[in-house]
Write a structure and sequence with these properties.
This protein is an alpha/beta fold. Helices cover 49% and strands 15% of the residues.
């Protein structure tokens, strides 16, 4: 029986891994396949039983990463022990640069004949281009989300397959904004603010204060405003703790269908930078982006980052479509002012949504199923002699 190892270290990777597992199973049809590896609840539903909780790997920032290094190394050892026991036919390492790089290096030592595929490469077009050379020495193939990734890695001899961004295949056609409004007790024309504070505990901890201040200011200036917060299962406790300080009337949403309703039905969204900003653009509302990391990490990254934007929608558009408030500019009053402008001006909302839609088209929305393309690339590696 074919054994595929899938390794993801955070919520976004868990979602990619689950879709990849389902696509591999679909491609194989009646051929049996067994999945092993590391992931979260979505991958567990596809048969990947993780030896530890991936929330232990929820690390953000250079300095924070150094502090967490012993814990991450321990989880790498756990992953390699699993690989040594299961002896997979192929290993697919998903995103999470620091963790998966160490896993790849370990696999090269203990299972040198096992092909290693990296799914989602480091954003070397934005910062730290030396990572392209490091990855080329470590894995056998890279699956990229963006077509502009390939030259950076192929220059170092790493085979690259562009599969597309699975997020762009998100289907919101069944989302029902009216169901959301019934749930939150909002009238058809009442305004709804969606708040997405992050997918890592460290992000949520840093964004809780500015997002909470923004929510308080907006509720004071817009008395009928409803506030909804979609909650990822992997960080549910951290989100509940953060939102507890945002006052009464903030609705946490854990039901998956209702999350889609909220994303499609929100008047405006306030989101921590990450995958969710692209998802929200697909769902429809205009998005205001905030982000904070540790002060020392930020000072170091300022010297490394080569792009003026952090949201992929803005990178694709090559301009500020989604307003971004980073580090010292990420304050409650600034975020609230940006959101209020969109709440109060339908023309501004429509203009930003149109810009987001154009950027999504540039990113490849409407192309072939990325998870299916990734599954084909993985299975092709297994078939090679």
């Amino acid at each position: 029986m074919l054994c595929v190892m899938l390794v993801a270290g955070e919520a976004s990777g868990d979602a990619l891994g689950a879709k990849l597992a389902a696509a591999i199973r679909k491609q194989l049809g009646e051929t049996p396949v067994r999945f092993v590896g590391v992931g979260g609840p979505l991958m567990a539903a596809e048969g990947v039983q993780s030896p530890f909780d991936i929330r232990q790997l929820s690390v953000l920032g250079l300095i924070e990463g150094l502090a967490a290094y012993p814990r991450v190394v321990g989880r790498v050892r756990d992953t390699l022990r699993l690989a040594r026991r299961e002896k997979p036919d192929i290993a697919v390492l998903i995103d999470s640069w620091g963790f998966t790089l160490r896993v790849a290096q370990g696999l090269n030592r203990i299972l040198p004949a096992t092909p290693v595929v990296k799914y989602v490469g480091p954003q070397v077009w934005a910062s730290r281009p030396g990572r392209a050379r490091t990855l080329a020495r470590t894995v056998d193939r890279l699956l990229t989300l963006h077509s502009f990734d390939a030259p950076h890695f192929e220059a170092h001899g790493l085979p690259v397959t562009f599969v597309g961004n699975a997020i762009l295949a998100r289907d919101f056609s069944k989302a029902d904004p009216r169901r959301l409004r019934r749930t939150v007790g909002a009238a058809p024309k009442a305004q709804v603010l969606l708040v997405a504070p992050g997918s890592r505990r460290s992000e949520i901890a840093r964004m809780a204060q500015p997002f909470g201040e923004a929510v308080a200011l907006l509720r004071a200036s817009h008395p009928g405003l409803r506030v909804v917060v979609p909650v990822a299962q992997s960080v549910a406790g951290a989100v509940r703790e953060a939102a507890a300080g945002w006052g009464q009337g903030v609705l946490l949403i854990e039901d998956e269908a209702l999350k889609d309703d909220a994303m499609a039905g929100a008047t405006v969204a306030l989101a921590c930078s990450g995958t969710v900003t692209t998802e929200l653009a697909l769902a429809g509302p205009p998005v205001v982006v905030g982000y904070r990391i540790g002060a020392l990490s930020y000072a170091l990254l300022k010297r490394l980052v080569r792009t003026p934007w952090i949201s992929l929608v803005n990178v694709a558009a090559a301009r500020m479509v989604m307003p971004e408030f980073i580090q010292h500019r990420c304050t409650g009053p600034k975020l609230a002012a940006a959101v209020a402008r969109l709440l109060d001006d339908p023309a501004a909302r429509a203009e930003q949504v149109a810009g987001q839609q154009r950027a999504l088209a540039q990113m490849g929305r409407g192309g072939p199923d990325p998870s299916g393309a990734a599954a084909l690339a993985v299975l092709e590696m297994v078939k090679k002699p």
